[in-house]
Design goal:
Blueprint: E1 13-16, E2 19-22, E3 35-39, H1 43-46, H2 55-72, E4 75-81, E5 108-113, H3 124-131, E6 135-141, H4 143-156, E7 160-164, E8 168-169, H5 178-188, E9 194-196
Helix pairs in contact: 4-5
Domain Isochorismatase-like: 35-173
Pfam family, one: Isochorismatase
Protein name: Isochorismatase
Length: 211
């Protein structure tokens, strides 16, 4: 049984069968990140009756993160899920549209995907390699699905991964509230990502130190 999150030795985690399982967490990332990956920040998930919890607050935090990444000259990738026919995020449907504005440029692009992992079957890895990106911030929805899968894809690609807790979310699962599902998703990623409590502590920089 998974219980509600509570303070633990490293500042985050959950209780399973009466035992505390910690989620590694830092107050501040060790170094600036060179890219921001926004995962499935689409109308289907952030508006209407089926929106994720605190969708307006999440959108505001993601917007601030996006502006800071742009200002620092970091690479920005909007990952957009192409849902199946009849799905809320089916291509061409209103729910498929990105919720945050895109400033199309060499360093800000949209990458379409059909699976949870943004690196699977896309040119994302080659795109980041082409810019010399070695570290990424990952944010968006849903915590235990596309956010977690893309984080694993980034780690498998040899990238440093920063995951701010307040810029990813999901729905509740059975009797588990959304906040617990999100924290369990973080825990399942192990100790390789850098987990930080707030996106406000995340710094960005241009790949290779350029602007």
């Amino acid at each position: 049984m998974v219980g509600p999150s509570q303070p633990g030795p490293s500042g985050g985690g959950f209780v399973r069968d009466g035992v505390w399982h910690s989620v590694p967490r830092r107050d501040v990332p060790t170094a600036p990140a060179e890219a921001l990956l926004l995962v499935d920040v689409q109308t289907a998930f952030l508006t209407g009756p089926d929106a994720v919890p605190d969708a307006p607050g999440l959108a505001a935090r993601l917007g601030l993160l996006l502006e800071r990444a742009r200002a620092a000259g970091a690479v920005v990738v909007h990952l957009r899920n192409d849902g199946e026919t009849g799905a809320p995020d089916e291509p061409g449907k209103p729910g498929w549209e990105l919720r945050l504005p895109v400033r199309a440029s060499a360093r800000e692009v949209v990458v379409s995907k059909e699976s949870d992992d943004g690196f699977d079957g896309t040119g994302l890895g080659a795109l980041l390699d082409g810019h010399g990106v070695r570290s990424v911030v990952i944010a968006g929805v849903l915590s235990e699905m596309c956010v977690a899968a893309t984080a694993r894809g980034a780690l498998d690609h040899g990238l440093r991964v920063v995951l701010p807790h307040d810029t990813h979310t999901t729905y509740g699962l059975d009797e588990l509230p959304p906040a617990v599902v999100s924290k369990v998703a973080e825990h399942a990623l192990g100790s390789d990502p850098e987990f930080v409590a707030s996106a406000a502590t995340v710094a960005f920089g241009a790949p290779g130190g350029g602007r």
